[in-house]
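User: Can you predict the 3D structure for this chain?
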Amino acid sequence: MALTPAAAEKILADNFAPWVLDLGLTVDSVDGRGAVLRLPWSDRLAREGGGLSGQALMAAADTATVIAVSAARGGFVPMTTVQQSTSFQRAVLDTDVLVRARLTKLGRRMAFADITLTAEGSDEPAAHATAVYALLG
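Assistant: Here is the predicted structure, written as structure tokens:
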């Protein structure tokens, strides 16, 4: 069963901590191997110097991975982050970020993802992450 963006938005609302929801993430698209989320620009998420904080970008990458796994599984299942590695390549200033999470391997108990975070309107990544999840259900 394919997950719709509306169903993915419900997964966000029902399964994430309030501070994650405060990021304002929305689901742009989902398919059987991934998801694209939008992290809207907010001065509240900016660090000293005006760039979007690394903490916000890492939380967005982690959240997008949960939605990607849910899309691949046809719905939410309990899971937990085992590992996430993030490299920051350029600052994001005054624009939304598109967070593209693609599953590189989905097993019965583990999922592996590659996440690219790009400032809207740019072809160059602002950050790149990889993540490993344990599937608990």
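Helices lie at 5-15, 18-21, 54-73. The chain is about 25% helix and 40% strand.
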